Amino acid sequence: MGQDKLRVAVVGAGRWAQAAHIPGWQRDPRVEVVALADVDAELVAEVGERFGVGRRVTDYRELLDDPAIDVIDVTTGNRTHFEITWAALEAGKHVLCEKPVHKDYRQTRRAAELARSKGLKTKLGFTFRYAPAVQYAKELIDAGFVGEPYIFNGYEQNSQWLDPSNPLRQEDPNADPDVIQVSSIEGYGAPIIDIMHWWVGSPMTSVVGTMRNFVPERVVRDTGLMTRMNIDDGDMWIAEFESGALASIQSSFVTVGNYPGIEARVYGSEGAIIVRLVEEFGVCQTIRTATKDSVEFVEREIPQRFFPEGGGSTEDWPFLFYSNLCKDFADELLSGGPANQGDFAQGALVQETVNTFERSFRERRWVSFPLEASPEEAR
Predict the structure, then answer these.
(1) Residue 301 in this model has a pLDDT that exceeds 60
(2) In the chain, what are the domain boundaries?
(3) Among 34, 119, 231, 306, whose CB has the most other CB atoms within 10 angstroms?
(4) Helices then strands (H, E): number in the chain?
(5) Cβ distance 89 to 118 under 8 Å?
């Protein structure tokens, strides 16, 4: 990019921006967070002051034509992701966006194509792809440790909303209460779906699965009222791959356990790997491996090269994992090379998987992948 510093504007000053995005960027000495936008003037002022971000605006559009900004980081509510992302790409900015870019994978693919046409790089907030343990596991897989992958098991489950009084954002207040809406599989399942595709390394061919609403009434974050919220707070899916591999995905935010609740397992012809990303007893991640000649799983030490400078597994996971995500994007942008992992094309693949899972449940059948448009969508 022909410069020493990467200049980032963060759009959205809420909880996740404060816990992960802003501190993640600011951990990297090559990056400067130069602007912060949020429609809440008091919030943007308070957060800007706390993190030392001098430029604070309530309309993100004020930032798009500024040549002193390289990256727009979108960490708003889901409903505005696509609008802000598209505007930023059209303005020639690289974009980091929280998932999903859009609930329709075809729109995410459009955004990926727009970025490609303009020579821009993109990245999805697939936080757990950048956990040091997950990155280390991928290196082991690529080196042949598991041999041919046979089975992948993915879990994203914790008890964050087991208590219905814990406020949860209602994505669509006008949704039909008699029809279950996608929530867990998209917000919580997407990161483990991303890891599934990345580790298995073969095109997916078909899926089948189901969704459940276990806790029907919840406090809505925006209103503070107990409301019927018919969402999938528990899911189970099976997937088949071109290579012959099989995968299972289980996602839920009403299963007893600690946050974030990620576990990824891969079993192959030569060995197996289990990565667990759960804050327990002061540690946020572990990796255990076994081989066909030594079948007892043993914990491995994660090499320091997978951590940000000075980082360790006793850090809070949002800070540690997101520091790695931001560092990786900075590496990709400042190097000028072709590398761009976890980009919008990967986001479109993950969202298409989510959309396929949903269709399988709606139609109560196996559904082929890639997803073909339904007759209604084709019209």
Answers:
(1) yes
(2) 6-127, 129-318+351-358
(3) 231
(4) 12, 17
(5) yes
